[in-house]
Known about the structure:
Blueprint: E1 3-9, E2 14-19, E3 33-42, E4 47-51, E5 68-70, E6 78-82, E7 92-93, E8 97-99
Parallel strand pairs: 4-6, 5-8
Antiparallel strand pairs: 1-2, 1-3, 3-4, 6-7
Amino acid sequence: MLHPKFIISENGELRLGRVRLHEDLVRKGEKDCYGGGYYEIDIINNVMLLYDESGDYGEPMWNVFDTIKVSKAYRGLRIVYRPEKDSQAGEIEITNFCYV
């Protein structure tokens, strides 16, 4: 079964996809990534919710990069990360990103 998952690639790209494993988002030749989790896109409220952590790579390490690269396809969405999907405790808004 495929699930909506994300990773932060080794070059700081926020990479999303419907995959079985987080490692399926790592491209050939890449050695690693900086964590990941799951995502939902709420079009009505213009929010991309990133949550939980990757079983393969752990919690996303947002502070490793000065700027996270996000696809232009998500322009206009507010990007929020929550350690737990249904709790706003620990929620952070991702503002250090640029569109590619």
